[in-house]
Each structure stands twice: as C-alpha cells, then as structure tokens.
Amino acid sequence: MSESETSAGLRWRLEELDFSAIDASKVQGSDEIFLLVCSASFVESGADTYAQNLVDYFAGDAEAGGWLGAHWMAEELQHGRALKAYVQHVWPDFDWEGAYADFFAEYSKICTTDELEPTRGQEMVARCIVEMGTTTYYQALHAVSDEPVLRDLCWRIRTDEVQHYKHFYHYFLNYREREHLRRPQVLATLWRRAAELRQSDADIALRHAWNWRFRGRADAPAYEEVSQRLFALMRGQYPLDLALRMALKPLRLPAWLEHGVERPLGLVARWALLH
Fold first, then answer.
1. Is there a contact between 236 and 118 (Cβ–Cβ < 8 Å)?
2. Nearest CA to 170 among 115, 208, 131?
3. Where is the signal peptide (predicted)?
4. Are 251 and 190 in contact (CB under 8 A)?
5. 113 near 56, Cβ under 8 Å?
6. Which of 113, 257, 132 shows the shortest CA–CA distance to 183?
7. What is the maximum span of the chain, computed from C-alpha positions, in angstroms?
8. 139-145 LR contacts (CB < 8 Å, sep 24+)
9. Which of 50, 89, 154, 198 is deepest in the core (most CB within 10 A)?
10. pTM of the complete model beyond 0.70
C-alpha cells in the first residue's frame, strides 16, 4: 500500500463519484438491481459492528489489528455510504433509514464474537472466503448492470475487496506458521464459511430490502420468487473460476494437485449454481 493510501486510509473517495451523471432510466424500473444494490448497502453499512469484533479479536497484533482498524473498516464503511447514496439518488422515495433500522435490529443479534473462528489463523481463512464472496458479488453486479455510475462503483468496491483478500491471506500465512495449522483444519474452515455465504447477513439484508420495497403493495411478489430471480440473474455473470482460485489458495496445494481439483470442483460448483 502506498504512503498516500496509508495516510488517507482509503484508495478512493466518495466525492469522486458523480451521482449527477447517473442514468436512472437504466435501473429505476428494475426491482432486481434495486434489491441487489440496497441489500449490499445494508450489509456494508453495518460494517463497523463486525469490523470492531475483528479489531477486538486481533488486539495485540499491531500489524493486522492496525490495518483492520485504520483501513479495512474505513473502506467497508465507505462502501456502505456510497451504495446508500446511490440508492437514495435513484430511488428517493425509498425509506432507506427505516429499512436499514429493521435490518440492523435483526443483524446485530447474530453479529457477535461467537461467530468468529476458534483461532486467529482460522479466522483469517474465513475472512478470505468472505472477501472471495464480496469480490465475486460486485464483479457479477458490475456485469449485470449497464448503468455507468453503478458499474464504476461496483468495480471500485470489487477492487477494494481483492486487496482485502490479499491482506487477509498474508496474515493467514503468518498465523499458519504460529499456530501450526494443518490442511484439514484450513479445509474445515473454508467449508464452514463457504456454506454460510448464501445465508446469514446477506439473506437478512435481502429480506428487509424486499419487505420495504414491496410493503403495502397488493402485487408484491413472494420473497422466494424474488430471490430465485436474483439468483438466476447473478448466476449468469458469476466469475466461478475466480471464486475457485480464491477459495483454494489458503489450502496451499501443490500446483499439480490444485490444477487437478479445479475442474471437478468447478463442475460441482456449477451444478450447485444451477440448482
């Protein structure tokens, strides 16, 4: 990270986004884009809660703890502010504050230190999976939207998430040596966290975005119907190969083995996405 990034704590600024240039006609009538952006804004805006849990968990580690507090948390919160601003520019009649309050009332109950992994090294592995999930989410959202400002914002966030992954992976390597983490422990952590990607905070955020988007409307579609539409939309642009590479990296497999398992794992992942 450069000196300017270090001093600022951010790679880009919210003021760099020209919300006046939004072509609302490309997104205003899309319930799918609204729900994808709004639910993401909820999760990112609650970043200070889970980020503080991590800062506390890594207290005493000057390098990792310092980066979490000074850079990672600041960037996550900026993502939330930017996504919220986008929602409010395009859908000004939507009560973002009310919807977010409902989301956070539920989300805060599950966002506890009990959700963290038993060791710091394993938690760094878990964070790699989380960052893989966010990286691929914003890359897919960038692909499914043709609104220029949203595409710009998604790519900025996606770039931040890639850098976050690199930091967490670096810290994982340090803790791997200290804690003598073996591959089965790493695999178990990867599996646990990957299984949660379509649950918990993302699902809570989507449900509250859907509820407030359609509240009081007689023609409101069922939540299950909406979630399936979103899943189908994102599935078509999901960067599966990137997701597999990021997920496998903490296992530190020999090159010949990694290449050997990528194809069967890719087939399994594609089957899961299609079902």
1. no
2. 131
3. none
4. yes
5. yes
6. 257
7. 58
8. 139/237, 139/239, 139/242, 140/234, 140/237, 140/238, 140/239, 141/36, 141/37, 141/40, 141/234, 143/237, 144/32, 144/33, 144/36, 144/233, 144/234, 144/236, 144/237, 145/26, 145/27, 145/33
9. 154
10. yes
Element (H, E) at 114: none
Contacts of residue 150, defined as CB under 8 A and 6 or more positions apart, other chains included, come to: 22, 27, 33, 37, 86, 141, 142
Q: Which two tokens stand for residue 135?
A: 């990286």
Question: If we measure between CA atoms, which residue out of 268, 248, 269 comes closest to residue 257?
Answer: 248
Of 272, 271, 264, 270, nearest to 248 by C-alpha is 264
Q: What is the per-residue DSSP string for 26-80?
A: GTTT-HHHHHHHHHHHHHHHTHHHHHHHHHHHTTT-HHHHHHIIIIIHHHHHHHH
Residue 164 identity: H
Q: Which CATH architecture has domain 27-274?
A: Orthogonal Bundle (1.10)
Residue spans of the domains in the chain: they are 27-274
